[in-house]
Amino acid sequence: MLKVWGSILSLLVFCCSYSQTKYEKFIVNDTVFYLRECTDSSYHAIFIEKNKKSKYYSQIADFKIDSPEEMQMEIDSTVRKNNLKIKKWALPNFPRQYNLLFLLNRNYYVYKPSETGANYRIKITDSTIITYGMMGIRPYVIVNFEKQSEKSHKFDAVSGFYNEQRTFIINSLDEKWEKIVCYEKRNGEENY
């Protein structure tokens, strides 16, 4: 009886590995799953994706704006409500796109949660700061920029969404701007 269960288990493992291959070509599955949860209504998995051609890798690495016309309407609304003139700022050379980093076993990683609101991103252009989170795409018009030091930049920005004003501060932890910390202030509170 034990041999039968062992054979069934081996067959299931083979089928699962084989089902994750592409183009009818057998590929060894090297994905290590830290957690898999499956219920009648949801599926949740935590794994490390090393394949840079994977759709999961692209979803994390790419900062795509799915609805540029929605963002433009939001910018127009912000400009009208606050009687602003959009100004193009001469910004110094530094990274302009940010994803949240998490720490696991002393290694940093980015996370693609099933809860899209937790996948917070920031992108900076010469006139706007665009955030992407639970509320979707939210552009902020930059109303003031200040280079506080060689390693720190401060942006004051306004959004038409509830006439919201925020201060974004970006700090470099090294001389080459390779390690970045970005946080924002909203009504005196700080979010990292």
What's the story with the biggest beta sheet? 8 strands, antiparallel
Percentage of β-strand residues: 35-45%
Distance between the termini: 56 Å
Radius of gyration, rounded?
A: 22 Å
Give the SSE string: HEEHHEEEEEEEEEE
Looking at this protein, list some descriptive labels.
192 residues; alpha+beta; 3 helices; 21% helix; globular
Can you lay out the helices and strands and say which pair or pack?
Layout: H1 2-19, E1 33-38, E2 43-47, H2 55-61, H3 68-82, E3 97-99, E4 102-104, E5 107-109, E6 121-124, E7 128-133, E8 136-149, E9 152-159, E10 164-172, E11 180-186, E12 189-191
Antiparallel strand pairs: 1-2, 3-6, 4-5, 6-7, 7-8, 8-9, 9-10, 10-11, 11-12
Put the structure in a nutshell:
With 192 residues, the protein is of the alpha+beta class.
Structural commentary:
- The protein is α+β, with helices and mostly antiparallel strands.
- It has a domain at 67-191.
- Helices cover 21% and strands 37% of the residues.
- A hairpin with a 3-residue loop joins strand 6 and strand 7 (128-133).
- It starts with a helix and ends with a strand.
- Mean pLDDT is 72; it is low at 11-15 and 17-24.
